[in-house]
Design goal:
mainly alpha
């Protein structure tokens, strides 16, 4: 028997043993580092735990795809910088007190482990709670007609909203060309008419409404291509996050559909080749973009160095986590705030509806003293206290769910939140595969922001539920559906034609 045949025969066992090896290694190195105050050992232990999580997720990618990519985002934002510094032989912990570094590494290890345990718990108890995606061949004509009308309405919404959003992004790009990148966060104000601005804010939800109809791949591909291309203007102005998160959104959607929709092969040779070639190319581009944006020469000795440089520059949240812990008692009115649900609190107290109905004061636009002091945002409060001048000039630290939960509930809060979050990462995928349209819309809207949680707020990924743009989007979808249905704007012949072409 050849080596290849042996690998095929024992591949699952090899993967399982590898996972347990890294799990054991993670505890060994982290505990040795913890009791000896060896921060390199601690970081290495955290990275090994992350590798364990990735291997575990890859063993059942269809259900654990969110867990897989969230682990990658944790590495990218939270511990890539200290890990790369360790490889380079740098003393990366020298800028902070040892107690603060110990807190950050402990919080990261506990959270990474608790999320993993949460996934295991849900996977163990959930067996028949949710059926797989509905077999479209058994769908009645009436149900198909309803879904077709929803698809047509959401498609029209997407075209209109995408156009408005892209126009505003082009306006942002033109603004940055005549000003500094930091000035955008302080002084940019769109001159677009109110209807254009309103429709632009509805774009992320319109794509979710459309995809929740579970259309065929031949419809999804061009729609998502246009969706991704809409992020190019923000990339040109200096923001990488919009394009990267859209690409991640598309990839996750394709993976979920590949495992749950048997009508199409979502990840064929073309898609797999694109991922294989596109991922390193994208990392190279993003690594070089720091220098391109600053109009400086690319300082790199090769491809690997450039990719490492990208992760190093993205991994600033470990420093934010550490400085956030050190400055916790200095934050304004800390005893009167709740950061875990800060976005919801600020929305109800200072949001659009509160301002219009209750005449409540707003928090203003961009970085400003009001937002830095009054808001329930750890990111804004910390940046205002920690580096006020830079914050008011347009810079910021970002935040983290670990900072939010620790400030409100301590280490126990981090454990419980992470356990629950692990459950949620699996639950959302299973929820998407049900027959319920609203459930699918909810999951897709969550995907817009959930991967940003390591450097965002603890519950920011749910904040869309109280945003006026989402509420108006739902009203527009329902109104459009009722109009199309009442006036029969999808004629029977068109309906039969679309059904015959199997577009959705």
């Amino acid at each position: 028997m050849s080596v290849i045949d042996l690998l095929k025969k024992y591949w699952k066992k090899i993967i399982l043993i590898s996972q347990y090896f890294f799990l054991l290694l993670s505890f060994l190195f982290f505990l040795l580092g913890y009791f000896n105050e060896n921060f390199n050992f601690q970081i290495f232990g955290i990275v090994c735990l992350g590798i364990n999580n990735l291997i575990f997720a890859s063993r059942k990618m269809g259900d654990r795809v969110l867990f897989f990519f969230f682990t990658i985002m944790l590495f990218t934002f939270m511990y890539s910088r200290p890990f790369i510094s360790m490889i380079r032989g740098n003393i990366w912990w020298g800028y902070f007190e040892p107690e603060s570094i110990q807190f950050s590494s402990t919080a990261l290890f506990i959270s990474t482990l608790a999320i993993y345990v949460g996934v295991i718990i849900y996977s163990a108890i959930e067996t028949k709670w949710f059926p797989k995606m509905e077999d479209r061949t058994k769908e009645t004509s009436e149900k198909y007609r309803k879904r077709m009308i929803l698809f047509v309405v959401s498609f029209l919404m997407f075209v209109i909203c995408w156009t408005c959003a892209t126009l505003i992004d082009i306006e942002k790009f033109l603004f940055v060309r005549g000003h500094s990148y930091e000035e955008f966060y302080v002084s940019y104000k769109t001159v677009a008419p109110l209807p254009i601005k309103a429709l632009a804010t509805m774009m992320p939800y319109s794509i979710c409404f459309l995809l929740a109809c579970k259309p065929r791949k031949k419809i999804v591909f061009p729609v998502l291509t246009v969706y991704v291309l809409g992020g190019v203007p923000t990339l040109l102005m200096g923001q990488r996050n919009t394009l990267v998160l859209r690409l991640l959104f598309v990839l996750v959607y394709y993976i979920i559909q590949n495992y749950n929709d048997n009508r199409d092969k979502w990840l064929g040779k073309f898609e797999k080749l694109g991922i294989t070639i596109g991922t390193p190319f994208l990392l190279l581009l993003l690594g070089a973009y720091n220098y391109i944006r600053a109009n400086t020469a690319v300082e790199s000795k090769g491809i690997v160095s450039l990719i490492m440089d990208f992760f190093y520059k993205q991994g600033t949240q470990f420093d934010t986590l550490t400085s956030g812990y050190e400055n916790l008692e200095k934050l304004p009115f800390i005893n009167l705030k709740n950061y875990t649900f800060g976005g919801f609190i600020d929305s109800f107290k200072h949001g659009f509806i509160a301002q219009k109905i209750f005449d409540s004061p707003g928090l203003g636009n961009g970085n400003n003293p009001i937002k830095g002091i009054v808001s329930n945002s750890y990111a804004h409060n910390l940046a205002y206290v920690y580096r006020r001048d830079a914050y008011l000039a347009g810079n910021g630290n970002g935040g983290s769910y670990l900072l939010d939960v620790n400030a409100d509930y301590g280490i126990l809060g981090i454990i419980l939140f992470s356990l629950l979050f692990g459950v949620i990462l699996i639950y959302l995928v299973r929820l998407f595969t049900t027959r319920n349209y609203l459930s699918s819309v909810f999951v897709l809207c969550c995907l817009n922001d959930i991967f940003w949680t390591p450097r965002g707020g603890a519950t920011e990924w749910l904040l869309f539920l109280v945003k006026p743009s989402f509420i108006f989007s739902v009203i527009a979808l329902i109104g459009g559906y009722l109009i199309f249905k009442e006036f029969k704007l999808v004629p029977q012949k068109m309906f039969e034609y679309l059904k015959g072409k199997e577009l959705i």
